[in-house]
Amino acid sequence: MYPVQSGLRLPLWCGVALVAAGSLAGAVSCRSASGSSGSARTGEARAVRRAVEDVFLLTGELRAVRSASIVTPRSEGPLQIRWMVEDGTEVAEGERVVEFDAARVIQNIEERRLRLRQAENERESRERTLAAEGDRKRVAVDKAEVEAEKARVDAAVPRELRSAVEWRKMQALLLEKQAELQKARLELQAFQTSSRSDLEVLRRTEEKVRREVDAAEKTMASMSARAPKSGVFLVSNFWQWGPEGPRKLQPGDTVWPGYGVASIPDPTAMEVAATLSEVDHGNIASGMKVRCILDTYPDRTFEGKVEEVRAVAAEPRRMAGGASSVSGFPVRISLDRTDPVMRPGLSVRVEVVRNAWPAALTVPRQAVQFESEGAVVVRKGRTGTTAVRLAGCTPLDCIVESGLDEGDDVILR
Protein backbone atom coordinates (compact mmCIF):
# COMPACT_ATOMS: atom_id res chain seq x y z
CA MET A 1 0.00 0.00 0.00
CA TYR A 2 1.36 3.39 -0.96
CA PRO A 3 1.32 6.24 1.56
CA VAL A 4 -0.99 9.19 0.98
CA GLN A 5 -1.35 12.68 2.40
CA SER A 6 -2.65 12.98 5.92
CA GLY A 7 -6.45 13.22 5.96
CA LEU A 8 -6.78 11.83 2.41
CA ARG A 9 -8.78 8.78 1.43
CA LEU A 10 -6.79 5.59 0.94
CA PRO A 11 -5.49 4.83 -2.56
CA LEU A 12 -7.90 2.87 -4.74
CA TRP A 13 -6.64 -0.49 -5.90
CA CYS A 14 -7.99 -2.75 -8.57
CA GLY A 15 -9.08 -6.17 -7.35
CA VAL A 16 -7.36 -9.46 -8.00
CA ALA A 17 -9.54 -11.82 -10.04
CA LEU A 18 -10.59 -15.22 -8.66
CA VAL A 19 -10.41 -17.99 -11.21
CA ALA A 20 -13.13 -20.64 -11.39
CA ALA A 21 -11.03 -23.27 -9.61
CA GLY A 22 -10.68 -20.93 -6.67
CA SER A 23 -6.96 -20.13 -7.10
CA LEU A 24 -5.70 -16.58 -7.32
CA ALA A 25 -4.60 -15.07 -10.58
CA GLY A 26 -2.54 -11.96 -10.99
CA ALA A 27 -5.02 -10.18 -13.24
CA VAL A 28 -6.00 -6.62 -12.37
CA SER A 29 -8.52 -4.31 -13.98
CA CYS A 30 -8.85 -0.54 -14.08
CA ARG A 31 -11.33 0.81 -16.60
CA SER A 32 -11.07 4.31 -18.06
CA ALA A 33 -12.76 6.17 -20.87
CA SER A 34 -9.53 6.95 -22.70
CA GLY A 35 -5.95 5.78 -22.91
CA SER A 36 -2.98 6.59 -20.68
CA SER A 37 -2.46 10.15 -19.55
CA GLY A 38 1.21 10.03 -20.49
CA SER A 39 2.61 11.97 -23.48
CA ALA A 40 4.66 10.56 -26.29
CA ARG A 41 7.87 11.99 -24.81
CA THR A 42 9.70 9.63 -22.45
CA GLY A 43 9.80 10.80 -18.79
CA GLU A 44 6.96 13.29 -19.14
CA ALA A 45 3.19 13.16 -18.83
CA ARG A 46 0.28 15.54 -19.00
CA ALA A 47 -2.55 15.92 -16.52
CA VAL A 48 -5.74 15.05 -18.39
CA ARG A 49 -9.37 14.91 -17.41
CA ARG A 50 -11.18 11.67 -18.17
CA ALA A 51 -13.52 9.09 -16.71
CA VAL A 52 -11.93 6.70 -14.20
CA GLU A 53 -13.38 3.68 -12.44
CA ASP A 54 -12.07 1.63 -9.55
CA VAL A 55 -13.02 -1.91 -10.58
CA PHE A 56 -12.62 -5.11 -8.53
CA LEU A 57 -12.72 -8.38 -10.43
CA LEU A 58 -14.42 -11.59 -9.36
CA THR A 59 -15.26 -14.81 -11.12
CA GLY A 60 -18.57 -16.50 -10.37
CA GLU A 61 -21.27 -18.62 -11.94
CA LEU A 62 -24.93 -18.23 -12.73
CA ARG A 63 -27.54 -19.88 -10.56
CA ALA A 64 -31.31 -19.69 -10.35
CA VAL A 65 -32.93 -17.58 -7.64
CA ARG A 66 -35.71 -20.16 -7.37
CA SER A 67 -35.74 -23.85 -8.17
CA ALA A 68 -37.97 -26.87 -7.63
CA SER A 69 -36.25 -29.67 -5.71
CA ILE A 70 -36.70 -33.41 -6.18
CA VAL A 71 -35.94 -35.22 -2.93
CA THR A 72 -35.65 -38.82 -1.84
CA PRO A 73 -39.06 -40.04 -0.56
CA ARG A 74 -39.62 -40.91 3.08
CA SER A 75 -38.72 -44.44 4.06
CA GLU A 76 -37.27 -46.41 6.97
CA GLY A 77 -33.80 -46.40 5.53
CA PRO A 78 -31.63 -45.38 2.56
CA LEU A 79 -32.83 -45.94 -0.98
CA GLN A 80 -30.90 -46.87 -4.08
CA ILE A 81 -31.31 -45.00 -7.36
CA ARG A 82 -32.24 -47.43 -10.14
CA TRP A 83 -32.57 -44.94 -12.99
CA MET A 84 -32.56 -41.19 -13.54
CA VAL A 85 -32.66 -38.68 -16.37
CA GLU A 86 -29.27 -37.44 -17.56
CA ASP A 87 -27.97 -34.19 -16.15
CA GLY A 88 -28.97 -31.14 -18.21
CA THR A 89 -31.92 -32.79 -19.96
CA GLU A 90 -35.01 -30.73 -20.79
CA VAL A 91 -37.99 -32.33 -19.00
CA ALA A 92 -41.72 -31.62 -19.07
CA GLU A 93 -43.98 -31.23 -16.05
CA GLY A 94 -45.16 -34.64 -14.83
CA GLU A 95 -42.48 -36.55 -16.71
CA ARG A 96 -40.81 -39.43 -14.85
CA VAL A 97 -37.27 -38.36 -13.94
CA VAL A 98 -36.01 -40.67 -11.12
CA GLU A 99 -36.71 -44.30 -10.18
CA PHE A 100 -35.74 -45.71 -6.78
CA ASP A 101 -35.31 -49.37 -5.90
CA ALA A 102 -38.60 -50.44 -4.30
CA ALA A 103 -37.63 -53.98 -3.17
CA ARG A 104 -37.29 -53.02 0.49
CA VAL A 105 -40.47 -50.93 0.37
CA ILE A 106 -42.43 -53.85 -1.11
CA GLN A 107 -41.15 -56.10 1.67
CA ASN A 108 -42.19 -53.51 4.26
CA ILE A 109 -45.66 -53.27 2.75
CA GLU A 110 -46.15 -57.04 2.91
CA GLU A 111 -44.92 -57.21 6.50
CA ARG A 112 -47.19 -54.36 7.56
CA ARG A 113 -50.19 -55.80 5.79
CA LEU A 114 -49.61 -59.06 7.66
CA ARG A 115 -49.39 -57.18 10.94
CA LEU A 116 -52.59 -55.31 10.07
CA ARG A 117 -54.43 -58.58 9.38
CA GLN A 118 -53.20 -59.95 12.71
CA ALA A 119 -54.30 -56.79 14.53
CA GLU A 120 -57.74 -56.98 12.90
CA ASN A 121 -58.10 -60.66 13.85
CA GLU A 122 -57.05 -59.96 17.42
CA ARG A 123 -59.53 -57.10 17.73
CA GLU A 124 -62.36 -59.12 16.23
CA SER A 125 -61.60 -62.11 18.47
CA ARG A 126 -61.42 -59.90 21.52
CA GLU A 127 -64.71 -58.23 20.58
CA ARG A 128 -66.45 -61.63 20.37
CA THR A 129 -64.97 -62.75 23.69
CA LEU A 130 -65.97 -59.56 25.43
CA ALA A 131 -69.46 -59.68 23.92
CA ALA A 132 -69.99 -63.20 25.31
CA GLU A 133 -68.59 -62.21 28.68
CA GLY A 134 -70.83 -59.15 28.71
CA ASP A 135 -73.89 -61.28 28.03
CA ARG A 136 -73.01 -63.51 31.00
CA LYS A 137 -72.59 -60.47 33.25
CA ARG A 138 -75.97 -59.09 32.19
CA VAL A 139 -77.65 -62.46 32.74
CA ALA A 140 -76.12 -62.55 36.24
CA VAL A 141 -77.55 -59.10 36.96
CA ASP A 142 -80.99 -60.12 35.70
CA LYS A 143 -80.91 -63.27 37.84
CA ALA A 144 -79.82 -61.28 40.87
CA GLU A 145 -82.64 -58.80 40.28
CA VAL A 146 -85.19 -61.67 40.17
CA GLU A 147 -83.76 -63.19 43.37
CA ALA A 148 -83.75 -59.83 45.09
CA GLU A 149 -87.34 -59.11 44.06
CA LYS A 150 -88.47 -62.54 45.32
CA ALA A 151 -86.73 -61.96 48.66
CA ARG A 152 -88.33 -58.50 48.90
CA VAL A 153 -91.80 -60.04 48.42
CA ASP A 154 -91.14 -62.68 51.08
CA ALA A 155 -89.77 -60.10 53.50
CA ALA A 156 -92.83 -57.89 52.97
CA VAL A 157 -95.14 -60.43 54.69
CA PRO A 158 -96.30 -58.89 57.98
CA ARG A 159 -94.45 -60.01 61.07
CA GLU A 160 -97.68 -61.14 62.71
CA LEU A 161 -98.21 -63.79 60.00
CA ARG A 162 -94.86 -65.48 60.48
CA SER A 163 -92.95 -66.86 63.37
CA ALA A 164 -90.22 -64.65 64.78
CA VAL A 165 -87.49 -66.98 63.54
CA GLU A 166 -88.89 -67.25 60.00
CA TRP A 167 -89.51 -63.49 59.74
CA ARG A 168 -85.91 -62.68 60.77
CA LYS A 169 -84.72 -65.28 58.24
CA MET A 170 -86.67 -63.57 55.42
CA GLN A 171 -85.26 -60.18 56.37
CA ALA A 172 -81.69 -61.52 56.34
CA LEU A 173 -82.30 -63.22 52.99
CA LEU A 174 -83.52 -59.91 51.52
CA LEU A 175 -80.35 -58.15 52.60
CA GLU A 176 -78.25 -60.96 51.14
CA LYS A 177 -80.01 -60.86 47.75
CA GLN A 178 -79.80 -57.09 47.58
CA ALA A 179 -76.06 -57.30 48.26
CA GLU A 180 -75.66 -59.91 45.50
CA LEU A 181 -77.60 -57.68 43.11
CA GLN A 182 -75.40 -54.71 43.93
CA LYS A 183 -72.30 -56.84 43.44
CA ALA A 184 -73.52 -58.12 40.06
CA ARG A 185 -74.25 -54.59 38.89
CA LEU A 186 -70.80 -53.35 39.99
CA GLU A 187 -69.14 -56.28 38.21
CA LEU A 188 -71.09 -55.45 35.03
CA GLN A 189 -70.05 -51.79 35.20
CA ALA A 190 -66.41 -52.70 35.83
CA PHE A 191 -66.49 -55.18 32.97
CA GLN A 192 -67.99 -52.63 30.59
CA THR A 193 -65.33 -50.08 31.50
CA SER A 194 -62.41 -52.52 31.18
CA SER A 195 -63.76 -53.99 27.95
CA ARG A 196 -64.06 -50.55 26.37
CA SER A 197 -60.48 -49.82 27.40
CA ASP A 198 -59.21 -53.13 26.00
CA LEU A 199 -61.01 -52.62 22.70
CA GLU A 200 -59.76 -49.02 22.44
CA VAL A 201 -56.16 -50.22 22.86
CA LEU A 202 -56.66 -52.85 20.16
CA ARG A 203 -58.33 -50.34 17.82
CA ARG A 204 -55.50 -47.85 18.29
CA THR A 205 -52.95 -50.57 17.60
CA GLU A 206 -54.85 -51.56 14.49
CA GLU A 207 -55.12 -47.92 13.36
CA LYS A 208 -51.41 -47.39 13.89
CA VAL A 209 -50.54 -50.40 11.75
CA ARG A 210 -53.04 -49.22 9.11
CA ARG A 211 -51.31 -45.80 9.00
CA GLU A 212 -47.98 -47.56 8.60
CA VAL A 213 -49.42 -49.53 5.68
CA ASP A 214 -50.76 -46.33 4.10
CA ALA A 215 -47.40 -44.61 4.57
CA ALA A 216 -45.58 -47.55 2.99
CA GLU A 217 -48.00 -47.55 0.05
CA LYS A 218 -47.49 -43.81 -0.43
CA THR A 219 -43.74 -44.38 -0.32
CA MET A 220 -44.19 -47.07 -2.93
CA ALA A 221 -46.07 -44.61 -5.13
CA SER A 222 -43.25 -42.06 -4.72
CA MET A 223 -40.56 -44.52 -5.82
CA SER A 224 -41.10 -43.01 -9.25
CA ALA A 225 -40.41 -39.27 -8.95
CA ARG A 226 -41.88 -36.93 -11.54
CA ALA A 227 -40.89 -33.44 -12.57
CA PRO A 228 -42.87 -30.81 -10.60
CA LYS A 229 -42.44 -28.34 -13.48
CA SER A 230 -40.93 -28.06 -16.93
CA GLY A 231 -37.29 -27.05 -17.24
CA VAL A 232 -33.70 -28.27 -17.18
CA PHE A 233 -33.05 -31.31 -14.96
CA LEU A 234 -29.91 -30.73 -12.86
CA VAL A 235 -28.50 -33.69 -10.93
CA SER A 236 -27.10 -33.02 -7.44
CA ASN A 237 -23.68 -34.08 -6.20
CA PHE A 238 -23.24 -37.41 -4.45
CA TRP A 239 -23.06 -36.97 -0.68
CA GLN A 240 -20.03 -39.28 -0.37
CA TRP A 241 -16.97 -37.97 -2.18
CA GLY A 242 -14.44 -40.28 -3.71
CA PRO A 243 -10.68 -39.86 -4.08
CA GLU A 244 -11.24 -37.59 -7.08
CA GLY A 245 -13.57 -35.23 -5.25
CA PRO A 246 -17.29 -34.57 -5.73
CA ARG A 247 -19.28 -36.11 -8.55
CA LYS A 248 -22.86 -36.19 -9.78
CA LEU A 249 -25.34 -38.77 -8.54
CA GLN A 250 -25.79 -41.76 -10.80
CA PRO A 251 -27.83 -45.01 -10.86
CA GLY A 252 -26.65 -47.38 -8.15
CA ASP A 253 -25.93 -44.65 -5.59
CA THR A 254 -27.60 -44.87 -2.18
CA VAL A 255 -29.26 -41.75 -0.72
CA TRP A 256 -31.08 -41.04 2.52
CA PRO A 257 -34.72 -39.91 2.78
CA GLY A 258 -35.07 -36.17 2.25
CA TYR A 259 -31.82 -35.87 0.27
CA GLY A 260 -32.16 -33.58 -2.75
CA VAL A 261 -31.25 -35.72 -5.76
CA ALA A 262 -31.97 -33.07 -8.40
CA SER A 263 -33.49 -29.67 -9.04
CA ILE A 264 -35.25 -27.84 -11.84
CA PRO A 265 -34.23 -24.16 -11.73
CA ASP A 266 -36.52 -21.32 -12.74
CA PRO A 267 -34.75 -19.70 -15.72
CA THR A 268 -36.78 -16.49 -15.44
CA ALA A 269 -34.79 -15.21 -12.43
CA MET A 270 -31.01 -15.68 -12.28
CA GLU A 271 -28.27 -14.40 -9.99
CA VAL A 272 -24.50 -14.76 -9.70
CA ALA A 273 -22.70 -16.65 -6.95
CA ALA A 274 -19.02 -15.76 -6.42
CA THR A 275 -16.37 -16.15 -3.76
CA LEU A 276 -14.26 -13.35 -2.30
CA SER A 277 -10.78 -14.43 -1.28
CA GLU A 278 -9.90 -14.09 2.39
CA VAL A 279 -7.04 -11.72 1.55
CA ASP A 280 -9.50 -9.42 -0.25
CA HIS A 281 -12.06 -9.29 2.55
CA GLY A 282 -13.39 -5.75 2.94
CA ASN A 283 -12.62 -4.68 -0.62
CA ILE A 284 -16.26 -4.92 -1.70
CA ALA A 285 -19.55 -4.37 0.12
CA SER A 286 -23.28 -4.79 -0.37
CA GLY A 287 -24.91 -2.24 -2.66
CA MET A 288 -21.97 -1.78 -5.05
CA LYS A 289 -22.85 -1.76 -8.74
CA VAL A 290 -21.45 -4.54 -10.91
CA ARG A 291 -21.08 -5.47 -14.57
CA CYS A 292 -21.37 -9.16 -15.40
CA ILE A 293 -19.94 -10.63 -18.60
CA LEU A 294 -20.72 -14.24 -19.51
CA ASP A 295 -17.67 -16.15 -20.69
CA THR A 296 -19.74 -17.71 -23.47
CA TYR A 297 -21.07 -14.29 -24.58
CA PRO A 298 -18.18 -11.85 -23.98
CA ASP A 299 -19.80 -9.15 -26.12
CA ARG A 300 -22.81 -8.82 -23.78
CA THR A 301 -22.83 -7.02 -20.42
CA PHE A 302 -25.46 -7.32 -17.72
CA GLU A 303 -25.81 -4.78 -14.93
CA GLY A 304 -26.43 -5.70 -11.31
CA LYS A 305 -25.33 -5.07 -7.75
CA VAL A 306 -23.77 -6.85 -4.80
CA GLU A 307 -26.61 -8.07 -2.59
CA GLU A 308 -24.65 -9.87 0.12
CA VAL A 309 -21.12 -10.62 1.23
CA ARG A 310 -21.22 -13.36 3.86
CA ALA A 311 -19.47 -12.60 7.13
CA VAL A 312 -18.30 -16.21 7.54
CA ALA A 313 -15.90 -17.78 5.06
CA ALA A 314 -16.90 -21.04 3.41
CA GLU A 315 -14.71 -24.07 4.04
CA PRO A 316 -12.44 -25.25 1.21
CA ARG A 317 -13.97 -27.93 -1.01
CA ARG A 318 -12.09 -30.82 -2.48
CA MET A 319 -12.07 -30.66 -6.27
CA ALA A 320 -11.37 -33.20 -8.99
CA GLY A 321 -7.86 -34.59 -8.92
CA GLY A 322 -7.61 -34.24 -5.15
CA ALA A 323 -7.01 -30.48 -5.21
CA SER A 324 -8.81 -28.18 -2.78
CA SER A 325 -10.60 -24.96 -3.61
CA VAL A 326 -9.51 -21.76 -1.91
CA SER A 327 -11.70 -20.82 1.03
CA GLY A 328 -13.42 -17.46 0.85
CA PHE A 329 -16.51 -15.42 1.58
CA PRO A 330 -19.59 -16.26 -0.51
CA VAL A 331 -20.89 -13.30 -2.51
CA ARG A 332 -24.42 -13.05 -3.94
CA ILE A 333 -24.99 -10.69 -6.87
CA SER A 334 -28.40 -9.78 -8.28
CA LEU A 335 -28.98 -8.97 -11.94
CA ASP A 336 -31.15 -6.14 -13.24
CA ARG A 337 -32.55 -8.45 -15.91
CA THR A 338 -32.43 -12.09 -16.91
CA ASP A 339 -31.70 -13.03 -20.51
CA PRO A 340 -32.81 -16.25 -22.25
CA VAL A 341 -29.16 -17.10 -22.97
CA MET A 342 -28.47 -17.46 -19.25
CA ARG A 343 -28.18 -21.01 -17.93
CA PRO A 344 -27.28 -22.17 -14.42
CA GLY A 345 -23.60 -23.01 -14.09
CA LEU A 346 -22.30 -20.63 -16.78
CA SER A 347 -19.09 -18.88 -15.75
CA VAL A 348 -19.33 -15.12 -15.26
CA ARG A 349 -16.71 -12.40 -15.01
CA VAL A 350 -17.86 -9.84 -12.46
CA GLU A 351 -16.59 -6.25 -12.44
CA VAL A 352 -17.48 -4.63 -9.12
CA VAL A 353 -17.43 -0.83 -9.53
CA ARG A 354 -16.23 0.35 -6.15
CA ASN A 355 -15.97 4.01 -7.19
CA ALA A 356 -16.24 6.10 -10.34
CA TRP A 357 -15.21 9.60 -11.40
CA PRO A 358 -16.85 10.76 -14.62
CA ALA A 359 -14.36 13.60 -15.11
CA ALA A 360 -11.29 13.09 -12.96
CA LEU A 361 -8.01 14.96 -13.36
CA THR A 362 -5.41 12.18 -13.61
CA VAL A 363 -1.66 11.82 -13.84
CA PRO A 364 0.38 8.59 -14.16
CA ARG A 365 1.17 6.82 -10.93
CA GLN A 366 4.90 7.21 -11.65
CA ALA A 367 4.58 11.00 -11.52
CA VAL A 368 3.48 11.05 -7.87
CA GLN A 369 5.96 10.89 -5.05
CA PHE A 370 4.87 10.32 -1.46
CA GLU A 371 6.90 12.22 1.10
CA SER A 372 6.47 12.86 4.78
CA GLU A 373 4.48 16.03 4.15
CA GLY A 374 2.21 14.33 1.58
CA ALA A 375 1.99 13.64 -2.14
CA VAL A 376 4.04 15.82 -4.48
CA VAL A 377 4.81 16.02 -8.20
CA VAL A 378 7.51 17.73 -10.22
CA ARG A 379 6.05 20.04 -12.86
CA LYS A 380 7.89 20.53 -16.12
CA GLY A 381 9.82 23.79 -16.30
CA ARG A 382 9.65 24.43 -12.57
CA THR A 383 12.12 23.82 -9.80
CA GLY A 384 11.17 22.00 -6.65
CA THR A 385 8.04 19.97 -6.06
CA THR A 386 4.37 20.81 -6.08
CA ALA A 387 2.08 19.46 -3.37
CA VAL A 388 -1.08 17.83 -4.64
CA ARG A 389 -4.20 16.51 -2.95
CA LEU A 390 -5.28 13.09 -4.18
CA ALA A 391 -8.70 11.48 -4.20
CA GLY A 392 -7.06 8.10 -4.62
CA CYS A 393 -4.82 5.99 -6.79
CA THR A 394 -5.11 2.98 -9.03
CA PRO A 395 -2.07 0.90 -10.02
CA LEU A 396 -1.74 3.08 -13.15
CA ASP A 397 -3.06 6.55 -12.29
CA CYS A 398 -3.64 8.94 -9.44
CA ILE A 399 -6.67 11.22 -9.25
CA VAL A 400 -5.78 14.80 -8.38
CA GLU A 401 -8.26 16.94 -6.45
CA SER A 402 -6.07 20.06 -6.18
CA GLY A 403 -2.54 21.27 -6.93
CA LEU A 404 -2.60 20.73 -10.72
CA ASP A 405 -4.63 22.02 -13.64
CA GLU A 406 -5.66 20.19 -16.76
CA GLY A 407 -2.83 20.30 -19.32
CA ASP A 408 0.00 20.69 -16.80
CA ASP A 409 3.04 18.59 -17.65
CA VAL A 410 4.71 16.53 -14.95
CA ILE A 411 7.94 14.57 -14.77
CA LEU A 412 7.81 10.79 -14.42
CA ARG A 413 10.05 9.22 -11.80
Strands, count: 21
Strand content: 25-35%
Mean pLDDT: 85
The CATH superfamily name of the largest domain is: Efflux pump adaptor protein, beta barrel domain
Determine and state the CATH class of the largest domain. Mainly Beta
Helix content estimate: 25-40%
Number of helices: 2
How many domain modules? Answer: 3
- Main beta-sheet annotation: 6 strands, antiparallel, barrel
Distance between the termini: 18 Å
| Radius of gyration of CA atoms, rounded to a whole number | 44 Å
Which strand order spans the largest sheet, edge to edge or round the barrel? 2-11-14-13-12-15
Coarse shape: elongated
Multimerization status: single chain
Q: Quickly give the CATH architecture of the largest domain.
A: Beta Barrel
Quote the CATH topology of the largest domain: Elongation Factor Tu (Ef-tu), domain 3
The structural class is: alpha+beta
Report the order of strands and helices.
EEEEEEHHEEEEEEEEEEEEEEE
Give start-end ranges of low-pLDDT stretches.
Answer: 1-41, 319-324
Would you mind describing this structure in some detail?
The protein is α+β, with helices and mostly antiparallel strands and 413 residues long. It folds into three domains: 44-65 and 267-411, Elongation Factor Tu (Ef-tu), domain 3 (Beta Barrel), CATH 2.40.30.170; 67-100 and 224-265, OB fold (Dihydrolipoamide Acetyltransferase, E2P), CATH 2.40.50; 105-221. The chain is 27% helix and 32% strand. It has helices spanning 103-155, 164-221, and strands at residues 44-46, 48-64, 67-71, 79-84, 89-91, 96-100, 224-226, 231-235, 254-255, 260-265, 270-277, 289-294, 297-309, 328-335, 347-364, 369-371, 374-377, 386-387, 389-393, 397-402, 409-411. The chain has a six-stranded antiparallel beta barrel with strand order 2-11-14-13-12-15. A four-stranded antiparallel beta sheet has the order 3-10-8-5, with no helix packed on it. The longest helix is centred in the middle third of the chain and has 58 residues, at 164-221. It starts with 43 loop residues before the first strand and ends with a strand. The model is unreliable at 1-41 and 319-324 (pLDDT under 50).
